[in-house]
Each structure stands twice: as structure tokens, then as C-alpha cells.
Amino acid sequence: MSGHRAGHRRRRLVLLAGSGLVLLASGCAAGAPSTLDPAGTGARRVEGFWWLLFWISVAVFAEVMALLAWALVFRRRPDRRINHSDPIRFVVVAGAGLPFVVLVAVFGVGLRDLAALGKPDRPPAATIEVTGHKWWWEVRYPGVDGATANEIHIPVGEPVLVRLRTVDVLHSFWVPQLMPKTDLIAGKVRETWLHAQRPGEYRGQCAEYCGLQHAHMAFLVVAHPRAEFDAWLGRLAAPAPVPDSDAERRGQEAFLQNACVACHTVRGTAADGTVGPDLSTIGSRWSLGAGAVPNDGGHLGGWIANSQTIKPGNAMPPQPVDAAALPDLIAYLRSLR
Ligand code: CUA
Q1: pLDDT in tens, 10-37
Q2: What are the pLDDT digits (tens) for 301-323?
Q3: Fold classified for 33-118
Q4: Measured in angstroms, how far is the CA atom of residue 169 from the centroid of ligand 1?
């Protein structure tokens, strides 16, 4: 009977461990940004701490399992090897003393890492102003007139200061491969920094539930070599390109005659709205609607006609654009790079 029950228990343990492994593996879906694949100095520190906690947990788990096995084997054969005067001392040392030492040590390492995450090891090479909106990120570079959205370009190999504000609710700025989360708090300016160690594109995500489209509040951090970054910043500072085809010219006209201009800016035109993202470089951005859909002609047309079907609740109402004018409007916006 008890043998049968032990077998049952073993099977259950195996099942539990197995399902744990499956859960663990499912967290590593390809393409998802992982803290365990760091590309920046901040995330690297977090990764180091994660592995420290992991191996301590493994050691504690192994120790507890070994003790459990030992107890299961020896409990039916009392007073053979157990010295009955020892249990109290054992519980105090292994159950309280040892955990206390380990936890204090981990706390010390955590404090050290927190202090290091607070500021980079050298003065930041650039400053970026990021403002959270429901549900997109406004990105500005002090001294540069232009603005972009849901995309942060940085030079690789240099720490960059990011100043964070929100115009509405709480959001949280998180780039798992570069830096842990920083909350955006109304009425405050929070600071974090990014220091990418290799060029690449790193997905970021709002990590604080902020309403209906919290999941569609993603962004991309693009780390370039310095010269490439400077060239990109130069393009951001310049006025938007002028139309160079008839379709684009008609599209620009349609843009300026419709309600678009009330909320959006295209630098170098009469459009200077500030409610929605600056569209001066919309054609080059990685997505529409902060990661909601890919940035291509079809999705752009759908977004203009009725973005509420793509990202319900966003601030842009459906636009009654003449169907004949829509292809031109798309051509114009696609040319803004
Ligand atoms: Cu912004 Cu969640």
C-alpha cells in the first residue's frame, strides 16, 4: 500500500518537474526579447543577478530534495543513524542560520547592482526625451527640432540618458535586452539610461498596465555606430522630404486638406498638430500604432480609414478620406522618411 503510494508520489513529482520545464521553455520563444540575452550593460547586470539567484535556488532545491530523500529512506528505520540530540541544532543552523547568511549576501549583491544601475560608469553621450501617451511613445532629442514615435535611435557603445515623462497615466519603460523597467509617473521626470554594447534592434514594451491598448505600446531601440546615428539624427532635424511625384503631391494636398493636420506634424508643411505622433519620418518607422501592425501601404490605408478596427480606443477617429484620394495619401506618407 505505502509502496504504491510512494510510486504515485514519485510520478506526480516527475509530472510537476516536467510541466515546469515546459513552462520554462515556452518563455524562450524565438524573437521575443529576453533579459537572458542582454545587449547592454544594464541588462547584463540584471542577467548576472538572475543567474546568481538561479544557482542559489538550484542548490537549495537540491539540498531540500536530498534531505527529503534521506528522511524518506531513514524514517522507517529509526534510531540507527540519527542522533536524536541533533535535530534542534540542525534546524537552527540549516533552517535559519544558513538562509540568513545567504539572503544577507544576496541583498548585498542586489544593493550593489541597484547602485550600479542608477547611473552609467561614465557621463552619458546624449540625452533623449521620451514621453508616454496612451498608447505610444513620443521621442525627442534636445536641440533637435524634429520628433519621432515608438522608435529610439542611440549610438552603440555609449551610455545615453533617457528622461521619461507621461502626459496621462502610469506607463513603464522597459527594454529587456538593455535595461530594466522605469515607471513613468505623472508630474515627475524619471531618468534611466541605455548603453547598447552591440548594434542592433531591441524591442521595448510598456510594462505597466495603462488601459485598453497597453499591449500595443511597444517601441524599438535601434543602436547604430556613431556615424550612422549622427546621419539619422541629421535626417530627423531636417524638414520632411518634399513630394517628388504627382501621386505624392496629390497625397500631400489631401493630407493638408483633411483633419490630419489638427493632430499631426509634418515638418516643413502647415501641419503642426501635437496630439498624435509627428509624421515627418513615418515612412521609415518599424510599425504603425506602436507595434500594432506592420508599416506598409495596406495597413497604412486601413489605419487612416479606421484605426479603431486595428487598435480600438486609440485617440484617432476614423477619417472620411475620399477613397480615390487614399492611394495618393498613402504614397505621400510612405515617402516621408
Ligand atoms: Cu503604457 Cu502600458
Answers
A1: 565 555 555 555 555 554 445 678 999 9
A2: 999 999 999 999 999 999 988 88
A3: Helix Hairpins (1.10.287)
A4: 8
Q: Whose CA is nearest to atom 1 of ligand 1?
A: 171
Protein residues with CB under 6 Å of any ligand 1 atom: 132, 135, 171, 206, 208-210, 214, 217
Instruction: Tell me whether strands 147-149 and 200-206 are parallel, antiparallel or unpaired.
Output: unpaired
Q: Please state which of the four CATH numbers 3.40.50.2300, 2.60.40.420, 3.30.565.10, 2.40.50.140 is assigned to the domain occupying 126-237.
A: 2.60.40.420
C-alpha cell at 36: 537572458
**How many A from CA of 285 to the centre of ligand 1?**
20
- Please give the backbone phi and psi of residue 87, each rounded to the nearest 5 degrees, phi first: -50, -45
CA distance 103 to 114: 16
Which atom of ligand 1 is least distant from the CA of 132? 1
Let me know: does 332 contact 248? Beta carbons within 8 Å. Answer: yes
Distance 135 CA to ligand 1 centre (A): 6
Alpha carbon of 217 to ligand 1 centroid (Å): 6
d(CA 82, CA 75): 10
Of the candidate CATH numbers 3.30.9.10, 1.20.1640.10, 2.70.98.10, 2.60.40.420, the domain formed by 246-335 belongs to 2.60.40.420
| In the chain, domain spans | 33-118, 126-237, 246-335
